[in-house]
Amino acid sequence: MIFNKQAFWQSAIPVNKEFLNSINSCLVIAPHPDDESLGCGGLIAQLRKSGKNVSVVLSTDGSMSHPNSLKYTSEDRTAVRKQELLTALKILGVDDQHVYYLDGKDSALPAQNEVGFSALQKNLEQIISVEKPDLCLVPFELDPHRDHRASWQLLNAALSASPSNGVTVWEYPIWLYQLATENDLPQLENGELKYLEINDFLQQKRTAIDAHLSQTTNLINDDPNGFRLTENMISNFLNGKEYFIERSSNRKENTLPMDYFESLYQKEIDPWNFEQSEYERKKYETTIDYLPKGTYHNALEIGCSIGVLSEMLAARCEALLSIDISSTALAAAKKRLHGNPSVTFEQRGIPDNFPAGNYDLIVMSEVGYYLSTDDLMQAKSRILETMRPGANLVLVHWTHYVTDYPLTGDQVHQIFHADRMLQHTAATRTADYRLDVFEKA
Fold first, then answer.
1. pLDDT tens-digit profile of 293-305?
2. N or C, which end of the chain has less CB nearby within 10 Å?
3. pTM of this prediction?
């Protein structure tokens, strides 16, 4: 039984263009030569036109579309299809040096726990370490072809074993359009099905599809049961949209580690230009202006960096504890506020090393989105535990999408807005950041 797909596809929402603009590198997993052109050729072309890096991994050898051919041996078919892949990718803007081959057996790609899977996984892990993708494209988990499903399992296993925080996974359908039964239909949350308008790249995509001559013509004409992409099949991919599934379970969810920040500060002691940026100066002045009370007895600053905001907060606090996960940043902050007896600096990461205390002010500026949802929830609990009744919490966060960060600024603030122990007392928002002030009940 073929499911009625119209309502399913109509539920899709547009992809976040800001996200696509923010990525640097995309890795495409193609089980067979032609899957890349059919499923995401428009996106590949768009990314390359925007100057983004795109690499492609072919997970099978592509040898079984015409298994009974006598003119073309298995080795010949593999060679033909790999050359077709390179030709198609060149049309889409991808260079040969960014194409990788896992050479799994076509129509018998090992699934998880099958012989050969772990070796393919390790090869894919190595490719990921080289290409460092922000976005991975892979066939839909339950796309009705064993090689497509096994390719999804390979990517999922490789990312799970890799330091892959910051990688977003989009699943693209191939046979879901034509062969899927009701049992194959994804059960998705609102917003998990997305579409990309590709009209500007439609001809480029069509040309790339046509480059797969062994699949679209009678190039291999001595196997009457050989596979052929018909115009009816191809039409599924040429309606001006490409569809992708971004599952919440596959979104990046790891808190950024200490090494992430140490590396930034060791390369450049002021990586966000806190000292010289006019934007940062105005944001800090606004933060101070929004403090509800004139003076605070005991305050905590979470994520003090090199101490630029700390210096301004110190003028309003009898005692200020400023913490940061980076020892390099803390050294600069201590130097900046040397001789100020009201400020104490400690190297701490939240939520695991949250400082004890009884604070009447806690400021968290540009920190919350570095945490996973679970870690932010734990940090919120510790914040509430250490706030006195009537104490203030000030949150300030950049609101644009950042590829590396597990959360957005808006997601951070919403988690605090939802807590009944916090009364929302003031707010402001610009084109780039939002500021919210709360009081503990």
1. 999 999 999 999 9
2. N
3. 0.68
